[in-house]
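Severity: low
Component: inverse-folding endpoint
Summary: output formatting inconsistent between runs
Steps to reproduce: submit the following structure tokens with default settings.
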């Protein structure tokens, strides 16, 4: 398999680490070599949490600037912040619901305009899939399902050779029982939204 490099970026508390675990387990079920690493910022204060995943034959999880094949952003400004990892062939999937940083919340900063943000991403990458993953997650009964909505969208792109059924199996067997049905619904919603 061709090496595929994926960056997942989020604000602390959005479920980035669970999303990367689900994808990693699904890759293992699909007999797909995978390596992953995480960068924990000041997550407890709404800081960035970034995961790097490399699928296929690779020796390192380091994804240098311009090397990402796919960028999945759980928060639009964090997606924009990680744009340096992309190149003209990168596919970007992003949630469009802002989580304003502290500086914006206290009036000391300005949140980027969402239309301009999307235009910038489109100008620098091959494809942008932008969705209100938060609204989709809300229909499952939990805003915490944003991560799984975005995983559904990623699987729909077929950039990774991981079938939807493998991800469903991981959700059924590796996530808390109380959240299984909610996460399965979120996965399906994201999958359909990226059609």
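Observed output (run 2 of 3):
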């Amino acid at each position: 398999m061709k090496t595929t490099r994926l960056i997942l970026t989020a604000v602390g508390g959005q479920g980035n680490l669970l999303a990367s675990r689900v994808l990693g387990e699904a890759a293992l079920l699909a007999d797909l070599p995978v390596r992953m690493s995480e960068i924990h910022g000041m997550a407890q204060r709404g800081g960035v949490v970034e995961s790097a995943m490399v699928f296929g034959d690779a020796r390192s999880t380091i994804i240098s600037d311009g090397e990402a094949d796919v960028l999945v952003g759980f928060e639009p400004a964090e997606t924009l912040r990680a744009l340096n990892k992309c190149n003209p062939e990168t596919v970007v999937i992003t949630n469009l619901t802002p989580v304003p940083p502290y500086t914006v919340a206290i009036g000391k900063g300005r949140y980027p305009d969402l239309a301009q943000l999307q235009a910038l991403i489109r100008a620098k990458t091959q494809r942008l899939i932008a969705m209100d993953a938060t609204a989709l997650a809300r229909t499952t009964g939990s805003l915490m399902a944003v991560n799984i909505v975005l995983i559904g969208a990623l699987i729909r792109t077929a950039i990774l050779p991981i079938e939807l059924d493998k991800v469903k199996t991981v959700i059924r067997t590796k996530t808390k029982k109380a959240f299984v049905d909610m996460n399965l619904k979120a996965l399906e919603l994201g999958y359909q939204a990226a059609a």
